[in-house]
Fold:
Amino acid sequence: MMLIHPTAVVHPRAEIHPSVKIGAYAVIGERVTIGEHTEIGAHVVIDGWTEIGARNKIFPGAVIGTEPQDLKYDGSLTLVTIGDDNLIREYVTINRATFAGESTVIGNHNLLMAYVHVGHNCVIQDRVVIANSVALSGHVMIENRARISGVLGVHQFVHIGQLAMVGGMSRIERDVPPFMTVEGNPSRVRTINRIGLERAGLDNETIGELKQALRVLYHQNLTLKEALARLETSPNPYVRHLHDFLLASSTHPGRRQPIPGR
Structure:
């Protein structure tokens, strides 16, 4: 049975699964869809064209699906899509996309800690952890299992790679390579994210190959083009992903260029 607090305001045309719990003074808009066993805390606002999957827990004060903070927005139908099993903590804000038919996307099993802001057109994949007071500008892409420490800003159009670790209070204005630890102002690649790789189940051989790739990229005085040429023939899928990420980052006109080494 749906458990909706009597003070909550739920639009009659919102699509709410019967198992959803909605707390006091929450506001759910007309075009919102919420999947089974999701819990909506007190004073949460969910508006716009927003679809939320199953077993999410959204804590008090979060605001999801409101208009993008973008002067180009013209009132078009734009979306927020959130998957399953996410924890969205207190006062998180997630804006919908800017142009008609576009989406801001949150995947599955993510943790967004208190006061995180997810700007328009961001894509967060799966099992990402973003710590308190992180602000993601528009069009940021975060790959699976990345870890973003607290109190930092991420520039628009930045990509953060798989299993990367970003240190707290860093300035992230360029792409963060996968599997690496990045921190500082200006930010620099410091080392591989060994603890994160071990926790993700990567074996010692793969971790060793990524460590060797780090040396090729940042410790042998090679140009990025020369370093990538050495990595492109690797049979290891993780090294190849690192190669492909950096190649796209350095050549695609919509990307921000990769963060350099120390």
